[in-house]
Specification:
Elements: E1 2-3, H1 8-17, E2 24-31, H2 38-47, E3 52-57, E4 59-62, E5 65-67, E6 71-77, E7 83-86, E8 107-113, H3 119-130, E9 135-141, E10 152-154, E11 157-159, E12 162-168, E13 171-177, E14 181-188, E15 191-193, E16 196-200, E17 203-204, H4 205-217, H5 226-230, E18 235-237, E19 245-252, E20 258-261, E21 269-274, H6 277-291, E22 296-304, H7 305-311, H8 315-326, E23 335-340, E24 343-347, E25 351-355, E26 359-365
Parallel strand pairs: 2-3, 8-9, 22-23
Antiparallel strand pairs: 1-6, 2-6, 3-10, 4-5, 4-23, 7-12, 8-12, 9-24, 10-11, 13-26, 14-21, 15-16, 16-17, 16-20, 18-19, 18-21, 19-20, 22-26, 24-25
Helix pairs in contact: 1-2, 6-8
């Protein structure tokens, strides 16, 4: 369900009134505008014995609409309480002792602080631990201002530089697509450090990128107006036989290096991509079709906030395409989710990836 309230006490009351069975967990997705008092909400839910997890996002999705404020709330059957993993701002991430291999390929819902520094390392360790015994679905929480702050919560508190992993007793069909097309490349990411690209083809990264973008856009690309133009020209990490993994260049730092959402491996091959509204909307429709199936319990959506910024008024067409191609039946199957700072999903049978500028749709079933 979606509620427009920004009052913590009202949110607690809403969650407590929802039908819950033993072992159920409440997923609470909050839009960042006029946020409720999250600490007060946590305290109230704990007093009422509710198991829960969630995060703050640039926006939330319910049905075929997006909202900057309010909450999307889902009650989901869980194998156990959510796991909170702290310390993603370090390279010494300690994973808890997760459940043993489940008897079905259930869904691991993974929420991360989308502005922390070691998301790829965390996901690599998570996949090393669980492999493809589960499906993965989730995304990056945080503020559109790109100012890092607490953005994830469980009964343990409201935190940043963290991740939450919850095992949901539902299998899922996953659709993952973005629709961005190659403009130029391949180019070698000759020198990088985590999410910072320093050199492309052994030259200054900003200079190489600026030349390509200015030649196509006809606009001068400067530090001051960087993201307004760069959001239309992301990087694509080359993947043979599949869509590139998109990396969104956010800004130019004081050294003239390109800062991206998510790590860019050194010596990886990059393409410069370009988007058109119709191709992005078609990709969203394709992802929804891939997520369809019989006996769907709920449809979850993680849609990158930068797609919203790029599409503008056309973003309503994207959400309409998702709903239409899901063949939604009943209240439980209405698409619900969040506008994310990076998207998380299984990619085929062998990869767990952190995406940018991508839409992930999960059709969950018993």
């Amino acid at each position: 369900m979606y509620s427009p309230t920004t009052n913590a006490e009202e949110l607690v009351e809403i969650v407590c009134r929802m039908k819950r069975k033993d072992g159920d967990v409440a997923l609470i997705l909050l839009g960042e505008k006029d946020m409720p008092d999250v600490e007060q909400m946590i305290s109230g839910l704990n007093k009422n014995g509710v198991d829960f997890f969630g995060g703050m996002f640039p926006g939330v999705i319910y049905d075929d609409r997006k909202y900057e404020q309010g909450a999307v709330i889902k009650v989901l059957p869980a194998l156990n309480s959510p796991y909170l993993i702290n310390g993603l701002d370090t390279d010494r991430i300690e994973l808890p002792d997760f459940i043993s291999q489940p008897d079905k390929k259930y869904t691991a819902m993974v929420l991360v602080d989308g502005l922390t520094s070691n998301i790829a390392l965390f996901l690599s360790q998570l996949f090393d631990c669980l492999g493809n015994s589960v499906h993965y679905f989730g995304g990056g929480a945080g503020s559109l201002s790109l100012k890092q702050q607490p953005c994830l919560f469980t009964k343990q508190g409201f935190v940043q530089d963290a991740a939450v992993v919850t095992f949901i007793k539902l299998e899922c069909n996953l659709g993952v697509s973005h629709g961005w097309k190659k403009l130029a490349g391949p180019i070698v990411a000759a020198r990088t450090c985590k999410n910072v690209v320093m050199e492309l083809d052994w030259k200054d990264a900003f200079e190489v990128y600026r030349e390509i973008v200015e030649n196509d856009s006809g606009c001068k690309l400067a530090v001051e107006n960087f993201y307004g133009t760069a959001m239309r020209y992301p990087f694509g990490i080359y993947k043979e036989g599949a869509e590139d993994i998109v990396r969104d260049p956010l800004m130019v730092n004081e050294k003239g290096e390109l800062v991206c959402v998510g790590e860019v491996p050194e010596n990886s091959l990059l393409n410069i991509l370009k988007g058109e509204p119709d191709s992005l909307i078609q990709a969203a429709a394709h992802a929804a079709k891939e997520a369809c199936g019989k006996g769907i319990h709920c449809n979850m959506v993680a849609d990158c906030i930068s797609r919203t910024l790029f599409l503008g008024d056309d973003f309503s067409r994207e959400l309409a395409a998702v709903k239409e191609n899901l063949a939604v039946v009943g209240d439980q199957a209405i698409p619900a989710g969040m506008l994310t700072l990076g998207e998380i999903a299984s990619y085929g049978e062998t990869f767990l990836e952190f995406f940018n500028k991508t839409i992930v749709v999960a059709g969950c079933y018993e």
